Amino acid sequence: MRDTSDNTADPSGPPGPAEPATEPAAEPVSESANGGIQLINVTKRFPGQETPAVDDITLTVPAGEIVVLLGPSGSGKTTTMRLINRLIEPTSGKIIVAGKDAMSLDPTELRRQIGYVIQNAGLFPHMTVGTNVGLVPQMLGWDKQKIADRVDELLRLVALDPAVYRDRYPRELSGGQQQRVGVARALAADPPAMLMDEPFGALDPITRERLQDELLQLQEELGKTIVFVTHDVDEALKLGDRIAILREGSQIAQYGTPQEILLNPAGEYVEQFLGGGQAMKLLKFGRVADVPLYQVPEATPDEDADTVRARIGAWEDGDFGIVLDERHRPLRWITQEDLEGASGPIGDRGEATAAPIRGRLTLQQALEALIQIEQDWVPVVGARGVYRGTVTLGTLQNAIKEMKERTRTRRKDPRQEQEAAGT
Ligand SMILES: Nc1ncnc2c1ncn2[C@@H]1O[C@H](COP(=O)(O)OP(=O)(O)OP(=O)(O)O)[C@@H](O)[C@H]1O
């Protein structure tokens, strides 16, 4: 049963009627000014309920990131989402969306800035796919041609051929296709933020994985601020830039990157939630960008062999370095042996590096890359191919070893565990 104070009948549907603004506009808040979302001491107590559904949650969702709310059934995840787009009103506390106090915004305007996707897509069954997707643009008064173009663009974006699917009804689609249409509809007015409440919960595992991959791909292009609810740990680890693990009352047991949570779970509750096998999970979901990369001596082709030889010689961990081009992109590995007898610029001495990997890859993908190439090192690059550091088998092993050691220390010293959990 839902709060009777809800101000729309269908949460996934078009925005509800406008309500008068209740407060003057808030001062912009830096973390959320760019489309981020902040909850500050937010509580929601439903009439007649002894304990609040949401009890004093404070959470920052940085702009352009996917934050996953992960918690057991009844922990208040959906209520938290519905508070953000004002389908229900908080009992106390403040919600800031894109730098503005949500309470100061017209709810219709607010919801236009926040797409909403729910389980089973929540499509209107008597409307075609095209009409469902075009609902918000239609409400915004766009002309027919513009709406039609936008609908086709969105359907292509979610991998549905407009010519095939535009005129179908939701019942003529598979569950996965309906969910894609739900995502397309939420993106229709190009909102900076999206709330996704167990959008893939009702799908079979294969379709679910495929839609998760598509969402990540879409996010690379669109960079939306996304709050994503699930109770599936693997889904959270795969999709979340950050994860908030919730207890009852939306209380945060831990908030961190997947890596941080796997490396250092804040107490028994979180460990139980992760369900063991953390070393495997770390490999499967940990991202290369989040482990300490190996920093080797760097050189450029125009540098003198003597200088490079001395630099590598002064480095205690090995006898090689990496040669980077003028834009700091990896070119070659260079060893002391390559430099033997050399003088003047090092030019193209050394051996070309394997194709660099991106920081977004998982540790497992990095491991696969290392096994495939016949080199012990693989360079990691960030935006525009700029070199960030090197991954070796040792880097991966250390990350896992460190995780095991921390878990062991915590088990030996329960006080440390309590501190980590903030209790
Ligand atoms: N409209 C409502 N009126 C009264 N109680 C409510 C209402 N909506 C939710 N609750 C209660 O608030 C608590 C949190 O519910 P909520 O739906 O937010 O949990 P959830 O974490 O999303 O659960 P699930 O994973 O099962 O969807 C529950 O105890 C629920 O019974």
Strand content: 15-25%
User: Could you give the order of strands across the largest sheet?
Assistant: 6-7-8-3-9-10
Total number of β-strand segments? 17
> Could you please say which CATH topology of the largest domain applies here?
Rossmann fold
Helix/strand-derived class? Answer: alpha/beta
Write down the domain tally. Answer: 2
Pfam family, one: ABC_tran
Organism: Actinomadura rugatobispora
InterPro entries: AAA+_ATPase, ABC_transporter-like_ATP-bd, ABC_transporter-like_CS, CBS_dom_sf, Gly-betaine_transp_ATP-bd, P-loop_NTPase
Family: Belongs to the ABC transporter superfamily.
Description:
The chain is an alpha/beta fold and 423 residues long. It has 2 domains: 30-256, P-loop containing nucleotide triphosphate hydrolases (Rossmann fold, 3-Layer(aba) Sandwich), CATH 3.40.50; 298-396, CBS-domain (Roll). It contains 16 helices and 17 strands. Strands 6-7-8-3-9-10 form a 6-stranded mixed β-sheet, with helices on both faces. A hairpin with a 2-residue loop joins strand 4 and strand 5. The longest helix is centred in the C-terminal third of the chain and has 20 residues, at 393-412. The radius of gyration is 25 Å and the shape is globular. It binds adenosine-5'-triphosphate.
